[in-house]
TrEMBL record:
Keywords: DNA-binding. It comes from Roseivirga spongicola. GO terms for molecular function: single-stranded DNA binding. Gene3D superfamilies: Nucleic acid-binding proteins. InterPro entries: NA-bd_OB-fold, Primosome_PriB/ssb. It comes from the Bacteria. Signal peptide: none annotated. SUPFAM superfamilies: Nucleic acid-binding proteins. This is Single-stranded DNA-binding protein.
Length: 142
């Protein structure tokens, strides 16, 4: 039997075939809150997406992401529980989705990122997009 045939039958070959790693950076849209009897920190970030429209003009669109950090992850939790609206953070974690029924009676999917790394890139800035708004094209984090 050749080495090629031996390697093809090893059970670890597909161990990391599928990965679920998510990295995001954005501004908190409101202060982080503790949930689950203080076992989790929950917050929401806004990220800015820039694109060219059909006239070649730069447009901005905000995307929003729900983040949860477990208190079992001491370093990430220590940062997450103290985050304030406007803080600029980087997170790394795994996305999880679940099916939900909307008030209107439709099925929808809710996605939450379970972060295992949280880095405070910069403390609160003055300009934070409200839900449904984007940062100005010229704005840079303070």
């Amino acid at each position: 039997m050749s080495n090629t045939e031996t390697n093809e039958t090893q059970p670890t070959e597909n161990l990391f075939a599928d990965t679920n790693i998510s990295m995001k950076s954005g501004h908190l849209v409101k202060d982080a809150e503790l949930i689950g009897d203080g076992k989790f920190a929950k917050f929401r970030i806004a990220t800015n997406k820039e694109f060219l429209d059909s006239q070649g003009q730069v447009q901005n669109m905000a995307n929003y992401f729900n983040i949860i950090v477990s208190s079992n992850l001491k370093d990430a939790f220590a940062i997450a529980q103290n985050l304030k609206k406007g803080d600029w953070v980087y997170i790394k974690g795994e996305d999880s989705s679940r099916s939900i029924d909307t008030v209107e009676g439709y099925k929808d999917t809710a996605v939450t990122t379970f972060a295992y790394k949280v880095v405070l890139k910069k403390e609160k800035t003055e300009q934070v997009p409200e839900e449904g708004q984007a940062l100005e094209a010229n704005s840079q984090p303070a």
